[in-house]
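Section 3.1: Structural characterization of target chains.
Under the original work plan, the team committed to producing a structural model for every single-chain target entering the pipeline before any wet-lab resources were allocated. The record below documents one such target. The sequence was received from the expression subgroup and is listed exactly as submitted; it comprises 99 residues.
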Amino acid sequence: MALRAKTLAVLGKLERAEDAARHGESLADVVVELTNSGLDDYFMRPLKLARAGFVVQQSANIGMAGAQKVMATVIRQVIGRMDHPQLLSVCGSIRQFMK
């Protein structure tokens, strides 16, 4: 499923839920995926297009992989502690970015 369609499906499910916290894990998964996609689109891909060189690209890949693991852990912990109104707020913010 394309990331946009997946994101919209998760947002819709969460926004319709009586208890949004039941879908917090799905939201965290999407936020992690969006973050990773953004890092790739705005950093790694331009680095490749700039022909920065093999060593630079490999160093960036290793660094970004580590950063993504740390960010994923933080994202999952933060979203996992959010209540219904907070999760709905995150959904609203994501929808704003998608316009």
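The radius of gyration is 16 Å.
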